[in-house]
Amino acid sequence: LLMHTFVLTLPFGCLTLILKRGVRDEPPLIQGWLPFVGKALEFRRDAHGFLKQQKKKFGDVFTVRIAGRFMTFIMDPLSYPTIIKQGRQLDFHAFSDKMASVVFGYTPIRDMCLPGFRDDIFRSFKLLHGDNLAPLTESMMANLMLVFRQDHLSERLREGATFLTLYGRTQDAGRHSGMDSLREDLVKFDKRFPLLTANVPIGLLREAKTSREKLISYFLPHRMSCWSNMSQFIRRRQELLNHDSVMTDMDKAAHHFAMLWASVANTIPTCFWALYHLLSQPEALQAVQQEVHDILNLSKVEFSSDRDVVLSREQLDKLLYLGTAINESLRLSSASMNIRVAQEDFSLRLDGERSVGVRKDDIVILYPQSLHMDPEIYDQPQTFRFDRFVQDGMEKTDFYKDGQKLKYYLMPFGSGASMCPGRHFAINEIKQFLCLLLLYFKLELEEGQARATLDPSRAGLGILSPSTDVRFRYRLRAI
Ligand code: HEM
């Protein structure tokens, strides 16, 4: 996150210094000769390549000085389970609260006197999974059909089903006016998201500032009070945000806006990549399409264009090939960092007997893209294989490194304390969306385009977008 700032302030490269910081068992320290810039530029240019190179030179654990902070990267996935268990000394929430408050424009929770608030928010995440997933999935299906019928099937393109599922419809059970401008503002804001996470003041990003103001005001309490059919999850968050009357209306609205962003920012590029890969491989598309038809026929739902498609949570669970094609798309496009801040000087246990010294306030990072692209774990890691995660008609879960089975082999949703609470909902809605696209439309990639590549500008921040636009052709199927 911090790297981007320094790309702006000092746009030139630096030499490498390898030092130890003098404390026992500390990992090798890699920094540029300009101490405050460190290795920011190289990381920003190609995070995955940079880390791969450092691993080759210095081994599985090394500290990189980036933007004045010491960041210890753990590159051996066999150490992940031990690291993830050491949650007491490695905090996630203070860091994310600070960063999110800057990006989304609310007062940091830490600065408000709200005892127990964070724990309550954490508990509210339960409303996104378990038994609560069924009503969310059902509601998502209905909203997708509403959006499809009103926009796509009448050949106009818009979106909003996730928004409607979480935040509800208008009082007359319809769609919100101003949805188009909400989407446009979200796109403008999101474009500047990497700069905001790098602490670039929003005052310098005029368009993002205006968009953020509009997005926040969309969620002001007097507007939300007119919405019906809100998910239990958002209702619970409203209760928590209203509790104690400490928060201003703007703060409450900014928290809701942050949740909207979290619920769509990674899901949309994942939908893109899954569709792109499926359309690029006829045998993958064929297998998934067949599976979708089988599941619908099995449950005796005849598909016709004027009847809503219903895919229950159980049916979605049975879509093995679609699920694994999505996982494979996530593997290829995910570049999130799992960031923890050391709460004290301590000895960080790795696997087996090994440990390294870490100092208070050092940042410890897992960078799962390195594991996702490791040829020892995934044969030909750059290649999309829709059935890579299938074995004997079931989901494959055994992947190996150095002959040992990995506990963590696919981590697009983070890990441990900061693991994405919306992950099950996300997978279900992506499946629902792709099913509808495949059922209603004949789709293909426009010919003559170069292969889509990942835009590295969001390295560390989630699912990467394609670096250029990709053109699809679509036509309503004759049914
Ligand atoms: C493909 C889709 C998604 C991906 C890849 C994804 C990925 C992630 C990751 C990597 C994190 C952890 C961030 C960190 O460690 O700093 C996270 C956190 C989070 N995600 Fe997701 N996410 C997705 C969809 C969703 C959806 C649909 C929702 C809500 C409905 C959601 C809600 C959240 C929330 C609330 C957090 C913060 C959790 C906390 O503060 O402890 N995500 N997500």
What does it look like?
The protein has 479 residues and is an alpha+beta fold. The protein has a domain at 3-95 and 336-379: Uridine Diphospho-n-acetylenolpyruvylglucosamine Reductase, domain 2. It is built from 20 helices and 19 strands. Helix 9 crosses helix 11. The protein binds protoporphyrin IX containing FE (HEM). The site of protoporphyrin IX containing FE has 21 residues, from helix 14, helix 15, strand 9, helix 20 and strand 18.
Which terms would index this structure?
binds protoporphyrin IX containing FE; 479 residues; 20 helices; lipid metabolism; Uridine Diphospho-n-acetylenolpyruvylglucosamine Reductase, domain 2
Mean pLDDT, rounded to whole units? 87
Q: What is the straight-line distance between the termini?
A: 49 Å
Strand content: 5-15%
Distinct small-molecule ligands in the complex: protoporphyrin IX containing FE
Give the overall form: globular
CATH architecture of the domain at 3-95 and 336-379: 2-Layer Sandwich
Radius of gyration: 23 Å
**Sheet with the most strands, sense and barrel status:** 7 strands, mixed
Low-pLDDT runs: 1-20
Helix content: 40-55%
**Based on helices, strands and strand pairing, what is the structural class?**
alpha+beta
Number of strands: 19
Strand order of the largest sheet: 1-2-3-4-12-9-5
- The name of the CATH topology of the domain at 3-95 and 336-379 is Uridine Diphospho-n-acetylenolpyruvylglucosamine Reductase, domain 2
Number of contiguous helices = 20
CATH class of the domain at 3-95 and 336-379: Alpha Beta
Family: Belongs to the cytochrome P450 family.
Pathway: Lipid metabolism; bile acid biosynthesis
Keywords: Endoplasmic reticulum, Heme, Iron, Lipid metabolism, Membrane, Metal-binding, Oxidoreductase, Signal, Steroid metabolism
GO biological process, one term: cholesterol homeostasis
